[in-house]
Amino acid sequence: MYCANCGGTIQPGQNFCNRCGQATTPATSTTPTPAPTPFSPPMNATSSVAVPVAAAQYCGIPQASRLAKHLQILGIIWIVVSFLRLIPALAMVFFHHTGFPFMALPMRGFLMPILGALGVYLAITAVVGLLVGWGLIDRQPWARMLAIVVGCLKLIDFPFGTALGIYTLWVLASQGADVEYQRLARVS
Description:
188 residues, mainly alpha
């Protein structure tokens, strides 16, 4: 039996295709289906390449792969999370420059450098996250590797960064995702 989505081989009793992850549809009809006729090349054919019967008979609409389905969602999540991180970063940088006039001088001298450094750190990570999100949505060739690196760094940002890092690695670092991403990057 062959997958209706990608033409990959499916073993009897298997619920999902190993190649593309498409769910298999069990045969629910009670009427017997006719046996497919085996592929036979024309008499004068010089090629001995055989095409699987199910793959040759498939003429449906191709469905998007797992990576293509999750790539848009992943890019949007990166943009939203990074934008939400940019708001407190800009507030910290603003308060670093304006200062806290109501606070005593020794405390202000201690708190202002920490607040400024944290604001700059958050702003840089937010800009990188926005860049990752835009690159994934636009399917830029460099965006996959940058997203994997930043996703690994996001794992320590508990709890939302950890979830985003795990989702990023699940989508972009799974088996065959590199080849599929390169194909999608060339198409767009």
